[in-house]
């Protein structure tokens, strides 16, 4: 397939690539993830100022007028720099929930704040016993007058330590894994009854365990239809999968380049190890894994507008293939570097860790292979 980016999309890529290259060096990133805050609010403000946070949204919603392809372009460049700022949780997930399901009042208040960078959101969906089942919700929201009372526990909420607001999924009716009865709420993180346990993740980001104990929200906190929001959540999850696939491609490209450069410099028996045929084969395999992942990333991005079953099938196909490639490239890069490849001071170890974590987010390769097979059989 011949795929050309528009002039505007190329401009976004060039602008962001230059920004990441100049202001997000490995040394800078290392200092950031070791700092108390773990991120750079000033970098987030720059992304807003340059229009990066508005790029995936329509002009009607106050955005640049873009969509999934703009998200792909952005995520590839963020992946190259291992940028830790919460683009997927805040812009793709929370922004997607508001874009597809929010009322005009919610868009005016919250989506506009996401676009201008004044509010950071986290997507509080995963639960300790939920594995990768998007329908599994033990968190409950009970009607209380004109509002709701939330109780439950959300696990590994990426970006929550930096967030001012949460997009929270909770069950308003039905049993734990029912497809009906799921609802979505906008909750301020400083609401009474919310407590968090914040920690650093293995790949340099920050996450929280978020606990809700009789947290009261108004009726205007409900996004979309009460009890009928699982389809909305799954749509946004597929969009997040497409974004993660693009991020992985950016990280894989840099990991491959670093590894190839290392083989040209490292010498054994008086010659660069790049001369060894077994390593030439390894580098060729790593390149092919990357190229296949790029193709799958583009494919799912173009399929996000398809009906739900078709979109989900391609999302699982792309996530499974990209997850396998991410692990293959990360592991082979580290093996090529040898012992120094796992040290914190060497950049390739950080690419290895991020690529490993991408495989597990929103379902690992094994989960998505099973999901793809089940959806394909159902379609047949």
In short:
The protein has 380 residues and is an alpha+beta fold. The protein contains eleven helices and ten strands.
Layout of strands and helices, then pairs:
Layout: H1 7-23, H2 26-34, H3 41-49, H4 68-80, H5 87-101, H6 104-115, E1 121-124, E2 140-144, E3 147-158, E4 165-171, E5 182-188, E6 194-200, E7 206-217, E8 222-223, H7 230-265, E9 267-268, E10 271-272, H8 277-303, H9 308-337, H10 347-360, H11 365-379
Parallel strand pairs: 1-4
Antiparallel strand pairs: 2-3, 3-7, 4-5, 5-8, 6-7, 9-10
Structure characterization notes:
- There is one protein chain.
- The protein has 380 residues and is α+β, with helices and mostly antiparallel strands.
- The protein folds into 3 domains: 7-118, Orthogonal Bundle (Butyryl-Coa Dehydrogenase, subunit A, domain 1); 122-228, Butyryl-CoA Dehydrogenase, subunit A, domain 2 (Beta Barrel); 231-379, Butyryl-CoA Dehydrogenase, subunit A, domain 3, CATH 1.20.140.
- The protein is 52% helix and 16% strand.
- It is built from 11 helices and 10 strands.
- It has a 4-stranded mixed β-sheet with strand order 1-4-5-8, with helices on one face. Strands 2-3-7-6 form a 4-stranded antiparallel β-sheet, with no helix packed on it. The chain has a two-stranded antiparallel sheet with strand order 9-10.
- A hairpin with a 2-residue loop joins strand 2 (140-144) and strand 3 (147-158).
- Helix 7 runs parallel beside helix 9 and helix 8 runs antiparallel to helix 9.
- The longest helix is centred in the middle third of the chain and has 36 residues, at 230-265.
- 45% of the residues are buried.
């Amino acid at each position: 397939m011949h795929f050309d980016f528009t002039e505007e999309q190329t401009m976004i890529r060039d602008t962001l690539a230059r920004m990441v290259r100049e202001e997000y060096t490995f040394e800078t990133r290392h200092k950031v993830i070791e700092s108390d805050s773990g991120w750079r609010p000033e970098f987030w403000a720059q992304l807003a100022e340059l229009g990066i946070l508005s790029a995936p949204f329509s002009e009607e919603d106050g955005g640049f007028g873009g969509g999934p392809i703009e998200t792909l372009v952005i995520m590839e460049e963020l992946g190259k720099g291992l940028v830790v700022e919460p683009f997927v949780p805040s812009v793709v997930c929370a922004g997607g929930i508001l874009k597809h399901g929010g009322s005009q009042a919610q868009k005016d208040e919250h989506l506009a704040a996401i676009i201008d960078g004044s509010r950071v959101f986290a997507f509080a969906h995963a639960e300790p016993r939920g594995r990768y089942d998007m329908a599994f919700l033990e968190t409950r929201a009970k009607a209380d007058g004109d509002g709701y009372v939330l109780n439950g526990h959300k696990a590994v909420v990426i970006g929550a330590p930096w967030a001012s607001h949460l997009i929270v999924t909770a069950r308003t009716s039905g049993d734990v894994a029912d497809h009906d009865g799921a609802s979505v709420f906008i909750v301020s993180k400083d609401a009474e009854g919310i407590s968090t346990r914040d920690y650093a993740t293995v790949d340099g980001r920050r996450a929280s365990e978020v606990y809700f104990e009789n947290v009261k929200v108004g009726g205007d906190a409900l996004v979309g239809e009460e009890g009928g929001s699982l389809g909305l959540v799954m749509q946004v999850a597929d969009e997040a999968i497409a974004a993660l696939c693009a991020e992985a491609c950016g990280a894989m490209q840099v990991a491959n380049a670093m590894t190839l450069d290392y083989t040209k410099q490292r010498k054994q028996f008086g010659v660069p190890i790049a001369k060894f045929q077994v390593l030439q084969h390894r580098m060729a395999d790593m390149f092919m894994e990357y190229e296949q992942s790029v193709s799958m990333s583009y494919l799912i991005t173009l399929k996000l507008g398809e009906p739900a079953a078709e979109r989900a099938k391609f999302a699982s196909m792309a996530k499974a293939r990209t997850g396998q490639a991410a692990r293959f490239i990360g592991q082979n890069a580290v093996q090529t570097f040898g012992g120094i490849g796992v040290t914190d001071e060497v950049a390739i170890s950080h690419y290895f860790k991020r690529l490993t974590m991408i495989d597990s987010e929103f379902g690992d390769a094994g989960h998505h292979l099973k999901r793809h097979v089940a959806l394909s059989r159902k379609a047949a």
